[in-house]
Design a protein that fits this description.
- This protein is 32% helix and 26% strand.
- By secondary structure, it is α+β, with helices and mostly antiparallel strands.
- The protein has a five-stranded antiparallel sheet with strand order 2-7-4-5-9, with no helix packed on it.
- The relative contact order is 0.21.
């Protein structure tokens, strides 16, 4: 089990092949966030201002639809969320609520800019990894939508979309 934030990041696909010195620069601001059980990291519709990596605790990704709140995904240690904020300028697409007391590493566009200014090659690796992760998630979503379209799954009855 990783003991430091750097070791945790090194095990994540988004930071794969990124050197330790680059990760240290990326996390130099030591931006960590603690969110108490039941509180929110952010709400759907909020401005996207950074990405989180859970160091401890569990959190739920929630989406409002048709007057209901749907549970999309459970997050645990090492999971990242909010990464779209590092790539686009759109509001948050979902809410994230702490299911337990949580501690997370917080990475902002400013952190990425410092990495870019210091080591453009390592910055490019992070950007490519972010794009790969976004593509992976898009493929999973496409597969789920296809299953719903052909009648093999129900978006509400499926466990990935359990109603809270």
């Amino acid at each position: 089990m990783p003991k430091t934030p750097i070791e945790l990041l090194q095990q994540m696909p988004i930071f794969g092949a990124v050197r330790e010195d680059a990760l240290q620069l990326l996390t130099a601001a030591q931006a960590t966030v603690e969110v108490a059980q039941g509180d929110y990291f952010f709400f759907e519709g909020d401005p996207g201002q950074g990405m989180y990596v859970l160091e401890s605790g569990r959190a739920a990704v929630l989406k409002s639809w048709g007057g209901r709140v749907l549970h999309l995904r459970q997050l645990g240690r090492g999971d990242c969320f909010g990464e779209m904020a590092l790539l686009d300028l759109y509001p948050r697409s979902a809410s994230v609520r702490a299911e337990e007391d949580c501690r997370a590493i917080y990475v902002t566009p400013g952190d990425l800019m410092r990495l870019y200014e210091h080591d453009v090659e390592q910055f490019a690796v992070v950007q490519m990894n972010l794009a790969r992760e976004m593509c992976r998630r898009l493929r999973l979503t496409d597969d789920m939508l296809f299953q719903v379209a052909v009648g093999e799954a129900s978006p509400v009855a499926d466990s990935a979309f359990a109603t809270l």
